[in-house]
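Reading group handout, session on sequence-to-structure problems. Before we discuss, look at one worked example. The prompt was deliberately terse, the way you'd type it at a terminal:

> structure F-box domain-containing protein

The input record follows.
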Amino acid sequence: MASGASFPRGSQFPAELIDSVIDHNHADPATLKICALVAKQWMPSSRLHLFSSVFINHGNAREFIDLLASPLCTVALAIRKLVVELVPGSQRWLGEFIRRLSLLDKTTNLVGLEISGAPGTLVRQEAQTALSTLSGQIKSLSFGPVVFETFLVFGQLLCSFRGLESLSCACIFQVQTIDPAGIQLIRLQLTGTLRQVKLASPATKPIIEYLLRQGAAGGSAVLPTIANLSLSYLSVDDYPPLTTYLGTPNDNLQSLTIRMDNNFSGANLDALADNLQLTHLQALVNLTIQTLPLLSPDQTFRLLARITSQQFSNLKISVALVQGVAGLDMLLSGNHFPALQKVIVVGPSWGDIRQFLPRCDVKGILREN
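And the output record:
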């Protein structure tokens, strides 16, 4: 196209093409702002992504409420998630903010809530009370590395969200439970139907134990509805509840992600290979295991050989290409995994991966990371 060329006045791109361009740049705010200024036709979709997640703290809460209260405000319906930053000290501002937000009744599409803060920030009672008032509309709940006094306090807040479908938690509990027998915890009934759970230690162990108790109280020893489970910074303390969960027949879990740094966990990779029992995951489709250091071929073989799911199709794993890798190559390319379509090996170079896994390469299942 010649320099300075322009489209005729009134010309429009197809709506599907505009949405495709904007959706492709959903994580690029600078580009989305430019898209919003191209034409009125481009503005709704751009606004949807630009304002889908809003960051709130004690410094901008009043200004944001004033924006929503303006009759000229056009972003309220685009807001789907609030990211609330807490700081040590008084958190009373949050109660006033949520009270005014509820009175305005404009953020009717709000379904996500993330609680963030500097590591070690205590979530005080006034903040807990304020957050629970949003429980009726929140389906996705996320906690950063903030602190709760006890796990029981955290559990009470968690159970107030009646329609919860997704939980992400990396918080710390000063006291994991004040009820060794678990009676009070069992009484806290989680009424939401969790589909997705993402945990980071030290929150992993107490939360899985609690969810297992919930299942046991309902007559099932398995986390009954979770389809996607992600565990980061797995430690040796997390193995007992994780082993209990994985050791029970499960036809719901489709995606499992485990990330572990040996320097953080204090557990060796042989312990991971021994405790990660994948035999009972009958619906497993996607598996990601990333470790530092890399798994050996023997450890990887022991992990993967236990998989019995006939739907298993996607694997991403960190493994060293050393002695024993030929057996792993035969396992992955053979008949043990009839639905396997994609294997991504993290760590080695692409050239080394193709060289040391020739059967997988010929079968066409290797993918570059």
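Points for discussion. First: DSSP finds 16 helices and 13 strands in the chain. Second: The two ends are 36 Å apart (CA to CA).
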